[in-house]
Amino acid sequence: MKSDFFQKKGTAIKQLAEVLIVMQPGEKLPIVSVLQENLGISRGTVQNALQFLKDQDAIVLVSRGHLGNYLTSINHRILQQYAGTDELFGTMPLPYSRIYEGLATALYDTLNAQGVRLNMAYIRGSNDRLQSVVRGMYQFAIVSKYAARRSIEMGESLKIIADLGKYSYLSQHILLLKNPNATTIVAGDRVGIDMSSIDQKELTHILTANTKVSYINLPGHQLIHEIELGRIDAGVWNYDEIIEKNYEHLNYQLISDMAISEEVSTAVIVCNQSDILVQTVLEKNIDTIKILQIQQDVKKGKIIPRY
Fold this sequence. Notes:
Elements: H1 2-21, H2 32-39, H3 43-55, E1 59-63, E2 69-74, H4 76-83, E3 87-92, H5 98-113, E4 117-122, H6 126-134, E5 140-144, H7 145-153, E6 158-163, E7 173-177, E8 190-193, H8 198-207, E9 214-217, H9 223-229, E10 234-238, H10 239-244, E11 251-255, H11 261-264, E12 267-272, H12 276-285, H13 288-299
Parallel strand pairs: 3-4, 3-5, 8-9, 8-10
Antiparallel strand pairs: 1-2, 5-12, 6-12, 7-10, 7-11
């Protein structure tokens, strides 16, 4: 009997914390009868849960007589513990470049400083990462601004929570070419294309427009290997890996004057549009300036990557 009581109280505290965490200081608290109906719990349980959160300094309420109770202060760090949002599950590209290592390190450090434990899965292909958020497998994803915008335009239930700015995702793309004397893709070329990558696929289609080529579907990270083996003639890839892994002996052309160049270099944090709780936690805890500073420090070797 006693265990049932504490279980109900714990559930009520979590439910109430989920309601409160998305509110803003100055907002009117719903009356007890409304909370009771919406949460499906008794009036006394609502009152006990509310008093508990006040005692834990998660919230401060002020009574304005017949106008009701108003939130004057919300401690999100405390409240997110009781709402169960002090642990997040996200996904981003495999950290094969310093930019990605810096981004992963920055996310772990900034969220940990706010009392949020971060669990990251490293998934190849922006489309797969975005779909994992749509399907509820992960709570947020790191992709390029272009990939996020295109998915939203196609009707996916996604929302951009944070825009980290130009060059936060990558410096630029390059066109790899097997022929050491080539400067562009020509008719008859075998062109590597990663159908799971919204950015790489779109850039490839732009570069091959009006040119008859054969598309070879393969993971983006295999492009360099396939070029070196002579199994493809061209492919779009990340300039950062070329520099950091000493592939400068390969023939490549910089891609920087396209209309989408800035968006494909910009990292954004995306979550499910319907997940207001996660949106709130991310918006309250993501410090863009700090993330970019840590990312730069990792790139310059001032901080050892940790993720």
